[in-house]
Amino acid sequence: MGTGKSLKMRKSLEEQLTQGLRSLGMGSVVYDCFEAALGSEVQIWSYTQPRYEKKLNLKQQLPDCRGLEVRNSIQSCWALPWLNVSADGDNARLVLNVSKEQHFSLFLYWKQVQGPPKPWWQKNLTGPQIITLNHTDLVPCLCIQVWPLEPDSFRTNICPFREDPRAHRNLWRAARLRLLTLQSWRLEALCPLPAEAALCWQAPGGDPCQPLVPPLSWENITVNKVLEFPLLEGHPNLCVQQVNSWEKLQLQECLWADSLGPLNDDVLLLETRGPQDNRSLCALEPSGCTSLPSRASTMAARLGEYLLQDLQSGQCLQLWNDDLGALWACPMDKYTHKRWALVWLACLLFAAALSLFLLLRKDHAKGWLRLLKQDVRKGAAARGRAALLLYSADDSNFERLVGALASALCQLPLRVAVDLWSRRELSAQGPVAWFHAQRRQTLQEGGMVVLLFSPGAVALCSDWLQDGVSAPGAHGPHDAFRASLSCVLPDFLQGRASGRYVAACFDRLLRPDAVPALFRTVPVFSLPSQLPDFLGALQQPSGPPSGRLRERVEQVSRALQPALESYFHPPGTPGPGRGVGPGTGDGT
């Protein structure tokens, strides 16, 4: 403690103790200095002679730095930091204006209604400081505490964001609803906030969630406290609506959808029970609650008799029940299916009538069909021709080369299918089923199947041609090329490959004459040296203009060049690289 403070405290205590002892018929006392914290309470016991015959108990409340007299006499009170909060665009700045030699501590925390504060961070600093807080970190209960690093320093506490609209928006944005059990849930947030909650019913189609009030009223809630709704069963369409004290919707989550799946096409029936066991039912719809039975024009009114029969036969799920009423969820799937069946029937009748009309006017029908055919062709040309790319996965470097080629062809535009991009479907369907589906779709749309040959593909085809079948169990989970041989080779053997297939290989990796003779019955292109002919074969029969074709050739060549360099000259290898050189005619 400062010198002035020590003298005044010692004098005060001496006077009080002397007065107390004199009242007991004793003498006086002189008390020396002692350490005590500002604002604390000091308790002193004194005993007399003879020993423990009489006792004096004295309590003294020490002042703190808020007292002007003490503030002028204690050094730590002189150095109280001055804190200001200002705006820095969307962010907030904490300006601490203290002397250069001043050592102090800065503590940021979230203030709670009950219990200790939740700490965020604390730092010991020196001298003037400007600290920027991100606007997304601001919440109403974020408070700041500053104090000098002195034994008896006074701490400054401020909570500057309690009325900040940004802080309230951030608080609700970070709040979460969590389902604990079927009936219990919790609102999790950093700060206490005034809020109400009610259950609502969310129907498919994007309509607003309709609060179930009545029969389930709004309830005041406490943050981070377990809450309960009196439900018998959960339902994916049941949601929790959260509002604050200004009756503005802040949060809505369908908690039961996480465990019960997506929204159901169900209708919610509200049962109300009155005196003398009177009961009424209504169906919750976007326009309100429609009484059942009813002559209204809504869907629930038209299906009212069927819904009541479903309720009586036990096909509806009871969600809530008490003395005042109940909630029932009744499925609407079967009625929706019937409605679509009627729509399809109407469409078929319309199509039959239209066909009859066109037959009666044959000349007009021919013109209409001609225009329709032209529109289909124009649409197919705009979408680009389909191409199915088949290759043997010799190694990962070759797969990267194939991927570069496929990506370049997609930019022409061509609609490229390659097993590299369909690993999930391959694993689910199997390579044989995947290939047959892709081949059928490509050929039906007038596309081309591209056989990309490599040394590994040549070896597989040679083995298949010698044995007539592929090895048992040879199909890997992603081996589409091996799986395709049982379907591709018959097309070549029976003369059905022309106009459907083309073959290709990469320069320096395989020469065109190394491709098995059976596959040379279709055009074989070496890439990238024969890119113009290759791209011309893949385009529509009319093909693009010559200038446009040159641009596409340059575009594909630029995309292929890095992949080819990486394949033939891998990083860290000084030689000409890997692969088969130009002098290997057999591709092995």
Write up this protein.
It is built from 16 helices and 27 strands. Strands 12, 13, 14, 16 and 17 form a five-stranded antiparallel sheet that branches. It has a five-stranded antiparallel sheet with strand order 20-19-18-22-21, with helices on one face. It is 34% helix and 26% strand. The protein has six domains: 69 residues, no CATH class; 87 residues, Macroglobulin (MG2) domain (Immunoglobulin-like, Sandwich), CATH 2.60.40; 86 residues; 68 residues, no CATH class; 44 residues; 189 residues, Rossmann fold (3-Layer(aba) Sandwich), CATH 3.40.50. The chain is an alpha+beta fold and 588 residues long. α11 packs across α12. The N terminus and C terminus are likely disordered. The chain starts with a helix and ends in a 20-residue tail after the last helix.
User: Low-confidence stretches at least 5 residues in length (pLDDT < 50)?
Assistant: 1-7, 373-382, 470-475, 575-588
Mean pLDDT: 77
CATH topology of the largest domain: Rossmann fold
How much of the sequence lies in strands comes to: 25-35%
Number of domains: 6
Based on the structure given, which CATH architecture of the largest domain is correct?
3-Layer(aba) Sandwich
| Largest sheet entry | 5 strands, antiparallel
Residues in helices, as a percent range: 25-40%
